Structures are given as structure tokens and as C-alpha cells.
Amino acid sequence: xxxxxxxxxxxxxxxxQLFRQCxxxxxxxxYGSWGGWNPDAPKPVRKMYILKNLKNLALWGGSIxxxxxxxxxxxxxxxxxxxxxxxxLQARARQTLRNGWTEAVSRQWEKTPKATNLFELYYGxxxxxxxxxxxxxKEVVYDALDNFRHSGVLKEILAVPMNDWLTVDKLTSxxxxxxxxxxxxxxxWRDTDGNVQIIxxxxxxxxxxxxxxxxxxxxxxxxxxxKVGAEQIxxxxxxxxxxxxxxxxxxxxxxxxxxxxxxxQSIQNMRSCLKDKDNNVAEEEDxxxxxxxDNCLTCPFREICPACGKD
Length: 311
Fold this sequence. Notes:
Blueprint (H helix, E strand, L loop, with lengths): L9 E2 L1 H9 L1 H10 L10 H10 L4 H21 L8 H20 L13 H4 L8 H19 L2 H7 L6 E12 L2 E12 L5 E7 L5 H19 L6 E7 L5 E4 L4 H20 L21 H4 L14
Parallel strand pairs: 1-3, 4-5
Antiparallel strand pairs: 2-3, 3-4, 5-6
């Protein structure tokens, strides 16, 4: 007998960011859409689940870069004699772009909601986008992969013995005072000094405060998973559309303490909105709309949200 899925409360950096941006969108994403993967789900639930899976072009491009990088690293880890060339990486991404575009314009997401569904198409004419947008997307993806392949970070990674590779973009979790916290470290390895080097690939700009919290969260996971002290955690952001530039972030016990306190405060704020905290039950009216109308312009739930209006 198949075990029934339960909507358990958990925390992640992305969940916390959405809660700060708009609590109503947060409700739609984590509660209203629950169960919408089932074709027989009530229509409003199914609709929220479809909207939850919308991606804008920038997010889609970033996910293609991440997936291509992850697959290349895993291919090499699993015994490939040579690491894929730039041309091979870009060819893989090109095929993913083509397949995703076909899924989006043919509306495959109506039957399979996790098929590619693009924000700009969904809220556009559903068939075409200006050539400059699609050309820019390809340029960003190909440039990121070129910079990744020629980066100093990759050279460093490929010199690390396989036994010292710790993780390659694997979704995992740990506990913070009894709450499950999700994270996915893009890459981590143990260096010759016993330090844990953590890499986060970025295709956007550098937002130091957000990245510091994200890398701090990874640091908390590293302490638990690999039994290292704060001083042994060496996280970096690598900006693949900025020449593969590596930005180092320092970690110490004070930072990790502060990040843990931020997580606990965020958890408390989220749980304070619940109708039934023990069973993670939420009611839509307990999650107010954002005070920043600009957020509505790029919100995937604008079709169903009363705050967006109908001009």
C-alpha cells in the first residue's frame, strides 16, 4: 500500500525568501497547491500547482546551467576518462532548451505540471517571444558554461581525488531544533588541509547578504554531515556570467550562530500564521498580500491572486 504524502512543515532559504516577499504567494506555493500533482485534484488546487511550477526565463536558464554542470561532474565522477568539452556542455544545454521550449509551447504542462512552463509565454501569447529575449537566454547559458569549463575552480576540482568529493548538487536536509531544513550544496570537497570547500554556482549577480545566509546554512549542514568546525568551512560563490569569478565568504562560529538564529526566527514567523501548528494546517485569509506591488508583476500566481487586479 502506497504511503500517503503528508504536508510536513520544513524550512529552506527559498521558502523564507518567498515568505518575506509575499505571504499570500507563500500560501499558494506551500499549502494551496498541495496535492495538485493529482489529475483529479480540485480545479483551484490543480491551477495553483501548475502556477507554482512556472519559471521565468532567467530562472529556467539558471536551472539548465546548474543541471548541465551537475551532470558533467557526475559523469566524470562515475568514471569518464575526460571531462566534457565546452562544445559538449553547450550541445547538452541546447538540447535541453529545445526540449523545454517544445514542452512549453505545446502546453504539455496541462497534463504533466512539472513539464517546462515559462512565465513569459504563459502570461504572453503562449507561442512566441521576441527574438532578443530568446537570443539573450541562449547567450547567458552558453557564456556561463564556457566560463565554467575554463574556470580556475573547475581545474581545482578536477585535481581533487574522488574520495575527497563530498557532494554534487544533491538535495538533502538536517535538523535545526526539531525542524527539517532543506539544502542542496552545488559542490563540496575536502581539501588537503582537512577543510570543507563549498561551491555555489551563480548565473545572476552577487547579493552578499542573501548569499551569506545561504552559505551559512550550508555551513550548518557541513558541521553536522562532515563533523568539521566552523573554521574549517570555506564557502564560495562562483559567478559564471562574470567570467567565473570566485567570491570567498568567511565563516566563523558567530556567523553560524547568527544564521541559526535567523532560521529559528523565520520558522517562528511562518508557524505563527498557521491555523493548526501541530498539523501544519493553513488558511488562506491568514496570509496577507504583499505591500510591494512590484512583486506582483513577476509573481507566478497573478492569474488567481485578487491583489493583482484585472486590468
